[in-house]
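Subject: two folds for Thursday's group meeting

Dear M.,

Sorry for the delay on this. The cluster queue was jammed most of the week, so I only got both jobs back this morning. I'm pasting them in the order they finished. Each block is the input sequence followed by the predicted structure tokens. Could you check whether the formatting survives your parser before we put anything on slides? The first protein is the one we discussed after the seminar.
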Amino acid sequence: MNIYVIYKFSDAERVNRLLEDGKTTDENRILHFFKFRPDNRIFNWHTIAKQKMQQCNIVCYFCTITDGNNDKLKNISWELKLAAKLKKTVIVFTLNPDKKPQTDNTAASIYGLDFSGELVNIDRYKTVPAENAYEFLLNEAKWSVENSLINKLEEIPSEQLSSPEGRQRYEERNRVLLEQYRIMVETSEKLMDRRQNTSNLYTTLCSALVALVGASFAISNAIIICVVSLLAGIIITCLCINWQSCLKSYDMNNAGKFAVLNAIEKILPANMFDCEYRYNTKNGIRSYSTRERIMPIIFLLFGCIMLLLGAGVGIYLIIETGLA
């Protein structure tokens, strides 16, 4: 797991010592840290930091809570805002958790900074004592859906299954598991329904704009054609970009749900969803979502054509006006 580390220059020695001491518990070396110290002499350090943070799974901020919050740490502020923009999970490791800041502001209490009001989604940040940093990160790296689900199942010894109490516990456990499985299937179906409704909405809007451009030609007015084409092209382009982003978000959410469903199915008699996926993949059967992702691209092309059309008509009108 790749980890981007943020810290104050004054805390560099302690942070390095904590990470070095923790390596003894990481026998397989599954944690990889990137410690970047912004330097004014490095002209493009923002670009380097952004590239490294994009490659990392987690962002860690080793924070020393200060008394006055008067020191505006611009580099740390920029890095935390970048982490929020890239939607990275941020873990705040408090180097002095017993320190009580003078301010009552929750965010300032966590970060010891004077730009807390500019940070977004404060609740998304997790705070952990720095002494537990390596152990916490190892647990995060080793976490998996299968292990998390299996560990929560109550194992019933085979000798107890012959008794009425043991069989009742076994049946109750399976009943609860099947009920949770059913709920997860229903939420997955609802998510696909919402995805379909979203696609239908975007398709309707884009189709209406394309039809509007076509209707503008019936007026035979070059100015109207130019304005309508440009506006429709800009709106369709924006809609398609947002449409693609929505579909990507739905795909990621659905992937998480099916990861949980597949993990539950490994405990159940039938592994239905995994078998269906393998069969479709083997026989070259594409899912509906794969075909659905083509629609934004098609309408995006229409949008580009309309922009070119509007620009072309506009240039023609300017030339005609100049010649006149």
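Second protein, same layout:
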Amino acid sequence: MALWLPLFEGEIALPTLFAPRDWHAHEMLFGYVPAVVTGFLLTAIPNWTGRLPLQGLPLLFLVIVWMAGRIAVSCSAHLGWLLTAMIDCVFLVLVVGAAAREIVAGQNWRNLKVVIPVTMLALANAGFHIEAHVSGAAQFALRTGVIAILILVMLIGGRIIPSFTHNWLVRENPGRLPLPFGKFDMAAIALSAAALCLWVAAPDGLLIGAVLCIAAVLHVVRLARWAGERTARERLVLVLHVAYAFVPLGFALTGLAAFGLVLPSAGLHAWMAGAVGTMTLAVMTRASLGHTGQELVAGIGTQTIYAAVVLAALARVGAALDPAWAVSLIHVAAFAWVVAFGGFALLYAPILFHARAN
């Protein structure tokens, strides 16, 4: 993101075959997000299976492969599109293989479905390279990648948000509790997935706009069932609900875009900067505290990075909604994003690089 703003302004240039917009979209969708998803899976799968986590040289190799992809994409003008695609696509293939192997070896069959959207993301990444090479811009692969990520957010968010909320409310604020994952959730996800598949094929029109807006309503209801309004005293839990609120917002804005009322980037950034960005920091901070033996409380620094990432998302959505303020709001969004993730690195590096607290 720190590179994207001067690239967007034309102040620097990268030796990449991608157009600046496609470079930004690719590196967020298929660079940043896969790193986050992999971190989550490598943390969660050992808990699901009881097996040892990936560590040591295999983990280092995975990190190096990921970094090689980032370098290759940014220097693709020197490497050629095919070699770049091969280098970049290896990472997600390895992640899918490692995740599937561990889940199958642990006979944790119910969580095997999480491999499906990750596989879809890997295929979308390959498609992005091909589409950009053939047509000069990637549209279908971009939307397909967004579907894969949203399905992960809807599936995983739908399990961890009510679970963490339930645990905190039982302990700190007895009363109405969130409803667990059930048939309504499955129906909402199924309809949303169908709507998103239609959106990939044809993003404009009255039918797709109506279906996307219906999906937005279902996710508003879904969020309301999780009693998020009762978690205001604990920002570590509340932020999960704030993150998920961007899911129905994205569906609503994408539906309005299908009607031709707003720019398509409004919904895309509600989903990606809002839902994915905020959920990322919410889970990263919680996992970092929990796995290092710290108290599960969001201090002022953590609350500040939460506020920064939400500001980044709102500013970027606002830039799409009001072209007159677009340039200024894009600057605000980029700066706030860097503050949020840079702030996480500064705040959490000390506890992550030291021994677990007793």
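Two things I noticed about the second structure. Residues 28 and 338 are 13 Å apart (CA to CA). DSSP finds 13 helices and no strands in the chain.

Cheers,
T.
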